[in-house]
Write a structure and sequence with these properties.
This protein has about 300 residues and is of the alpha+beta class. It folds into 2 domains: about 250 residues, 3-Layer(aba) Sandwich (Aminopeptidase); about 35 residues. It is built from 7 helices and 12 strands. β8 and β9 form a beta hairpin.
Length: about 300
């Protein structure tokens, strides 16, 4: 990944990129954004497009093998439906960049992706990595912020000399602030100087007791990785104004696409309620005059 400085002038309408946010399942705080749609078909289509884009890009990069993908070429991970995805598309709706923000609802070391990294599997580094993760979780809780893991970074080769890569990263800072502040971690590859670029934008190489954690080889992706720390309130100073601008744009003009599962109504709960009410009504109908039903009550 590489970045090139671009003028701040607006792109022409026929070449303007499309920015879309995919919301996690069961997300309900629609008031945070102006343009929110609930469309199961659109959500599944775009998530599949993101996974297919990642699969194709990682395969070409040598980070994955064909066996690591689904039969239709998608890089599918269990956390994808539970994550935010920032997607940048061309005017013809081809995905050219994506990034993922995964916030754990009840975080602990064992539930993090970091705990499953090769670095955490090394006996001499397991304890420092655990302490680092647990400290980050406590820091987020003390601030009333979220703990999240960022990843899924991917930029098409054709877009690596555009502003898309820069926008993708800084928008993660903006999203983290919109959601209430974020303290998190990211495992970043050293390929294409990705880790060093993230550090120039505000991420910090993870340290423990004053010493940086080592670069490590991750066999899953066949590359060297580094563990980075992330704080949405602390981008690199030179990019602070851009992060603020991206916050406003995400709130006001970027479409947020939700799966139907994110609607507050829970079908299973309604079915259970209906069954309870039917049972209650039935017991009342057969109870002798003056008897009190022991069925469930609402109130």
């Amino acid at each position: 990944m590489s970045f090139a400085a671009r003028p701040a002038s607006a792109p022409r309408p026929d070449t303007a990129p499309h920015f879309v946010l995919l919301a996690p399942l069961r997300w309900r705080r629609q008031s945070l954004f102006h343009d929110v749609v609930v469309d199961e078909s659109a959500y599944q289509h775009l998530l599949s497009a993101v996974q297919r884009f990642r699969g194709r890009s990682y395969l070409q990069d040598g980070a994955l093998r064909p066996a690591d993908l689904t039969p239709d070429g998608r890089h599918q991970q269990p956390i994808d439906p539970h994550s935010w995805h920032l997607v940048i598309q061309t005017p013809t709706l081809d995905v050219v960049s994506c990034a993922r923000y995964y916030s754990l609802p009840n975080p602990c070391f064992e539930t993090t992706l970091t705990s499953r990294s090769r670095l955490a599997a090394e006996p001499q580094w397991r304890s420092p990595v655990r302490s680092l993760v647990e400290n980050s979780i406590r820091q987020a809780a003390d601030r009333g912020a979220l703990f999240a893991e960022l990843g899924g970074w991917c930029v098409a080769e054709s877009a690596r000399k555009t502003s898309h890569a820069l926008r993708s990263v800084l928008s993660m800072y903006a999203l983290g602030e919109i959601l209430g502040g974020t303290v998190g971690l990211s495992t970043a590859t050293t390929r294409h100087s990705s880790s060093s670029i993230l550090q120039r934008l505000g991420a910090q190489k993870a340290h423990w007791q004053g010493h940086p954690l080592p670069t490590y080889f991750e066999p899953v992706f066949d590359c060297h990785m580094e563990l980075l720390q992330f704080d949405s309130s602390r981008p690199a100073p030179k990019y602070s104004s851009q992060v603020l601008a991206y916050q406003q744009q995400l709130r006001s003009s970027v479409r947020v696409v939700c799966s139907g599962a994110s609607v507050p109504t829970c079908v299973h709960s309604l079915q259970s309620l209906a069954e309870t009410l039917q049972s209650t009504d039935h017991s009342r109908s057969i109870a002798p005059p003056g008897a009190t039903s022991r069925g469930a009550s609402l109130g």
